């Protein structure tokens, strides 16, 4: 109730209202001026950054036009196939190679280290190459016979699980006997 008991600067209602509006306008102007001063540096920095990006974009467009547009009367040379580099596609999630009869956790880990992560990759790898990987890993792995692994992986890759299971029942630790 203290606020209600304070005496206004002016005793006239209209003059007191005008004084309140004048003080409000003064406060708004001071707030605007402080904000303008505070953000002027940041705004100038952003404008300079936008200008730099526009310049870089224009330079990029000009360089692309210069590269893609051959000189009049000149035929561009084709790209030589041997200059193209093949980048292997790494699957987002490797397959469980232990599904293949004869592959255990250690051999699956060994194959994964050699870049064979999926059934498709194993199906495309010749049995001789797999045998070379096993031989290089030491005597513990040399006893395994990977002859049927690519064929099993091919069935797994194609989703022929019933055929794979039937064939695995006939195998002896991944070997044809």
Main sheet summary: none
What structural category arises from helix and sheet content?
Answer: mainly alpha
Radius of gyration: 39 Å
Shape: elongated
Please tally the β strands and state the result.
Answer: 0
Helix content: 55-70%
Spatial gap, N to C terminus: 103 Å
> What's the helix-strand series?
HHHHHHHH
Structural overview:
- Helices cover 62% and strands 0% of the residues.
- It has 177 residues and is mainly α.
- The protein starts with a helix and ends in a 7-residue tail after the last helix.
- It contains eight helices and no strands.
- The radius of gyration is 39 Å and the shape is elongated.
Please name the defining characteristics of this protein.
single chain, 177 residues, mainly alpha, 8 helices, elongated
Q: What are the SSEs and their pairings?
A:
Layout: H1 2-5, H2 13-68, H3 105-113, H4 119-124, H5 127-137, H6 139-142, H7 149-157, H8 161-170
Q: How would you briefly describe this protein structure?
A:
With 177 residues, the protein is mainly α.
């Amino acid at each position: 109730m203290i606020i209600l008991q304070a005496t206004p600067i002016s005793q006239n209602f209209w003059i007191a209202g005008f004084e309140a509006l004048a003080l409000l306008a003064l406060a708004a102007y001071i707030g605007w001026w402080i904000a303008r001063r505070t953000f002027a540096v940041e705004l100038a920095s952003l404008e300079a950054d936008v200008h730099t990006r526009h310049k870089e974009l224009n330079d990029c467009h000009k360089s692309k036009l210069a590269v893609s547009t051959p000189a009049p009367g000149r035929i561009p040379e084709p790209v030589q196939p041997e200059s193209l580099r093949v980048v292997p596609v790494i699957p987002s999630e490797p397959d469980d190679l232990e599904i293949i009869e004869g592959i255990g956790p250690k051999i699956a880990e060994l194959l994964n280290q050699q870049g064979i992560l999926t059934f498709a990759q194993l199906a495309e790898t010749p049995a001789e190459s797999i045998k070379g990987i096993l031989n290089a890993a030491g005597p513990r792995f040399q006893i395994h016979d990977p002859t049927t692994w690519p064929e099993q992986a091919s069935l797994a890759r194609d989703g022929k699980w019933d055929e794979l299971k039937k064939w695995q029942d006939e195998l002896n630790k991944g070997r044809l006997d």
